[in-house]
Amino acid sequence: MSDFQKEMAERIAAIPANKKLCETAAAFMRASTMPKYSYNFSWQGRPIIQYPQDMVAMQELIWSIKPDLIIETGIAHGGSLIFSASMLALLDMCDAIETSEKLDPKISRRKVLGIDIDIRAHNRHAIETHPMASRIQMIQGSSIAPEIIEQVRAVAANYSRVLVCLDSNHTHEHVLAELQAYAPLTSKGSYCVVFDTVVEDMPKEMFPDRPWGPGNNPKTAVWEYLRTHPEFEIDKSIQHKLLITVAPDGYLRRV
């Protein structure tokens, strides 16, 4: 670890004790949720519906893990799939530079696998015609349906370094079922990232038209899952570093 990295680790470790900073960040999360702040960003032309801080965190994880497969539940407009695929393309380019091998940008052993219960036609078309499309595979169906889980497991069997991202239905029951189905596919040293755990920390009135809310959300599912799965631990250094994140307690490292 370099001196800079040591200093960074020390700064991050000190953040939880900085009450003013933490309270300011929490206030921003509460204030920015209702105006749909996260809907204002895109990646390579596709809406990504993420906070920029979490996008940076995912970039750091992908660079350090160097996965050959990224599994994502929840597709929406496809921005996250495009983001992941573009990061994999950068890994391919770096590999080619380091080995002096020729690179065909349309061919890659790395893949992003997206699952969604409803891939709308206009979103599918935009994803399939995007320059990153060759690195993307999509499956339509409920992420917790047995036949969909089997399809995903069959794909994952061909890869050795797997990163998992869960971002579909945010109820406790659904996310817990996704964790039971897909977290085991996470390779050792990699992460299963559970998004929108922040719902637990928000006022109940923020979700009047949703089946989830405080007490019934991705974070409560994470807590229940971890009680019987010691092979995962919450990497709190990520949420401390970000401060602004939809995934507190949601960055799960497989140890």
Name the features.
two-stranded antiparallel ribbon; 7-stranded mixed beta sheet; 255 residues; alpha/beta
Q: How far is it from the N-terminal to the C-terminal residue, by CA?
A: 20 Å
- Order of H and E elements: HHEEHEHEHEHEHEHEHE
Kindly state the percentage of residues in helix: 40-55%
Major sheet summary line? 7 strands, mixed
Assign the structural class, choosing from mainly alpha, mainly beta, alpha/beta, alpha+beta, or little secondary structure. Answer: alpha/beta
Identify low-pLDDT runs.
none
How much β-strand is present in the residues? 5-15%
* Strand arrangement across the biggest beta sheet: 5-4-3-6-7-9-8
CA-atom Rg in angstroms: 18 Å
Mean pLDDT across every amino acid position? 97
* DSSP E strands, number: 9
Query: How many helical stretches?
Result: 9
Describe the structure in your own words:
By secondary structure, the protein is of the alpha/beta class. The chain is 43% helix and 14% strand. The chain has nine helices and nine strands. The protein has helices at 3-14, 19-33, 52-65, 79-99, 121-128, 146-156, 172-182, 218-227, 236-242, and strands spanning 42-43, 46-47, 69-73, 111-116, 136-140, 162-166, 191-194, 232-234, 251-254. It has a seven-stranded mixed beta sheet, with helices on both faces. Strands 1-2 form a two-stranded antiparallel ribbon. The protein is globular. The two termini are 20 Å apart. The mean pLDDT is 97.
